[in-house]
Every structure is written in structure tokens, then in C-alpha cells.
Design a protein that fits this description.
The chain is of the alpha+beta class and 116 residues long. The protein contains four helices and three strands, in the order αβαααββ.
């Protein structure tokens, strides 16, 4: 039974799941918009919003914490562009727009993007 367990498994082992989320969030940060399945978008939203909140602290320790997770290019974009954009905002940096079902496998698709 689930009993308040947070997160989705995506039928993957933990290392594969972490790698998937890392790449999803990294491409979302670099491109600021991405089309994927609804479930992946919802999980990517959780991780991306935590990353932006950490980047908003603008300290050396916050940058080191982000550098453990993401590439240097991603950390630079987070700290130089995204964090200042949302300086006054308390949360809710992303938007998920539901698109409907994919033709090939009928998976629910969505667009996830950062707010302007």
C-alpha cells in the first residue's frame, strides 16, 4: 500500500529514475520549455522548483549543492537568469499545460514551461 509515499517510480530502478529526472530537469532549465508525459512533467516540476529555490539563495554553498546535481552550464543559467527572475516570487515557477493523448501509445502528454 502506498500510504503517503511521495513520487512516481516510472517502472525504473532508483538509479535510472534519478538519471531520468536529472536529465528532464536539466533540459527544462536550459530550454525553459519541454513536451513530455503528464507524470514526468509533474515530477520534473517538483525537482525544478526546488532547484530554483536553492538558486535564489545565491550563496556559494547553494551553487555547490546545485553543482552536485547539474552541469556547470545549467547551474550558471539557474543562478544568473532564472533565480533573479523569480526573486520576488514565493514559489510556483512552472506551468503545466495538458495536451491530450499521444497517438502511438495513448500516453497523456503535457508541456511544462517556466513562467515569464
Amino acid at each position: 500500500m502506498r500510504k503517503r509515499k511521495i513520487g512516481r517510480k516510472f517502472s525504473r530502478e532508483s538509479a535510472q529514475r534519478k538519471a531520468l529526472l536529472k536529465s528532464l530537469v536539466q533540459s527544462l532549465i536550459l530550454n525553459e520549455k519541454m513536451k513530455t508525459t503528464e507524470a514526468k512533467a509533474k515530477e520534473a516540476r517538483r525537482a525544478a522548483e526546488k532547484a530554483v529555490t536553492t538558486a535564489k539563495k545565491n550563496s556559494v554553498s547553494a551553487k555547490r549543492q546545485l553543482a552536485k546535481l547539474f552541469s556547470s552550464q545549467t547551474v550558471k543559467k539557474l543562478t544568473d537568469e532564472l533565480a533573479p527572475r523569480y526573486k520576488e516570487r514565493a514559489g510556483g515557477y512552472t506551468r503545466i499545460i495538458k495536451l491530450g493523448r499521444r497517438r502511438s501509445d495513448a500516453a497523456r502528454t503535457a508541456i511544462i514551461e517556466f513562467l515569464k
